[in-house]
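Lest this sound abstract, we let one protein speak, letters for residues, whole numbers for local backbone shapes, and leave readers to judge:
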Amino acid sequence: MRSRVDVKAVIVLVLLLSVLSCQKPQLVLRTPADTDPPPVETKPLANNAPPQLTQIIASAIEQTTVTTGYDPAYVGMEYPNGDVAPETGVCSDVVVRAFRKAGIDLQKEVHEDMGRAWDVYPKRWGAAGRDTNIDHRRVGNLRTYFERQGKSRPITTDRGQYLPGDIVSWDLGNKVDHIGIVVNVWSEQSKGYLIVHNIGSGARMEDVLLNWEITGHYRYFTN
């Protein structure tokens, strides 16, 4: 009888997870608190790594101590360099904030690129024109921007192809987008680097690269 109840509980969790969204999360599955985390190691970057790469990674990791919440609400903000409160945000804010530390304002970059190529950007949200409050916070727009900048890398399940500073996007199910940053913290258990992302409980550094279907892989800076 207990096993039947457990199976039903798993089915319910899977159904709930299928509607999880970077914009509107319903459920976040976490490792049980009584489970020891696997060993990790911070690996140094290459000597010739560009300083922007170091800044992006450092910012992503720092966000795990600052951004403790999640709020997908539409918020009016300044332009350029607009942001919501640092203790909250959505998955895309992790990327936007990290890039700002490297002197790249994705709010401005996406807005200007949409002006140059409006027709190639997604229309899933029914937008009739550009909006500096939200455009850079939509994963589909970030993916399009990175692709147009020639930053795409092969999508693969080979963990070794994902390096610190890479941007990865996923489909959580039902075309729900998610995005995060690969950092230079290595998991000995999975033989791969960890990801900083915000899926509903603030910015976290976790081993989630292959947890969902990968839809985008981008490398903005190269050695």
User: Anything to note?
Assistant: Confidence is low (pLDDT under 50) at residues 1-21, 27-34. Residues 2-218 form one domain.
